[in-house]
Amino acid sequence: MTLSHHLLLLGVLSLWHCSADSADPLGVFCDKDAKIGSPKESAYIDDLSVQLVLKASTSGFVAISYGSGQVFVHGLAQCRGDVGKEACSTCIQDAAMQIRARCPNEADARIWFDYCFLRYSNKDFIGKLDTRPGILYRNGDNVTIETERFNEELGKLMENIGSQAVERRNEGLGKGQTKLSPFVTLYALAQCTRDLSPLSCAQCLSISVGNFPNFCNNRKGCRVLYSSCYTRYELYPIFFPLGSTQRFSNTQMMMVYP
Fold first, then answer.
1. What is d(CA 221, CA 187) in angstroms, rounded to the nearest whole number?
2. Are 134 and 112 in contact (CB under 8 A)?
3. What range defines the domain where residue 189 resides?
4. pLDDT at position 241
5. What is the pLDDT of residues 125-156, one digit of tens each?
6. Does 142 share its domain with 238?
7. pLDDT below 70 — which residues of the chain?
8. Which residues neighbour 171 within 8 Å (Cβ) at sequence distance 6 or greater?
9. Is the distance from CB of 74 to CB of 65 less than 8 angstroms?
10. Are residue 68 and residue 104 in the same domain, yes or no?
11. Model-level pTM?
């Protein structure tokens, strides 16, 4: 990395870190089979990271390519659709800083946070459905209400929010809730990256939700994260304006390569 690249990257990415500690990501993937091939490619990744931070921090989403000649890198950054501008900007800055620190030698890297997702690669992935790898979280506790009704209501809710997510006007976001009893409410959230077509979004969400019966059967909470979409349900509020600071208790996590 040249001194000018280094200073520019630090100048953009250190704005928030001057006053706050870094958050831990939900997951990181560094493709060990995609090594950075040259200093030029590394410099382009740094330049791309700066552009991802600048543009996604203001718009909530960006998908761009950067380079020249035979060397190009491609990047995408997106915040959760219900997250405010300030939280989005903070998350994207953190993602760009951490992904380069955690994947310093890889030309294909992804990082997931609760509020945002960031990815870059030397292969053009923009607009393409990608469900490899996947990161799955599940609550270690089973639901205490009647499981058949729980799964029926969960299925209806995920279908409803999936229908929201594929509509262009919703920019890939679907969210909703349903009462299971006077004292228990089920909340669900789904989002596709905004470069996907409605059909690809629907396919991604279908694959994601398809993990629920196997990995999260009858569990109080579940989260499936792919590079193109994610889905989540909980028995407490998980989206704004009903946001909660609660996190998983007794959580189990797995990274899968279907």
1. 9
2. no
3. 134-256
4. 83
5. 999 999 999 999 999 999 999 999 999 999 99
6. yes
7. 1-22, 242-258
8. 60, 61, 81, 194
9. yes
10. yes
11. 0.86
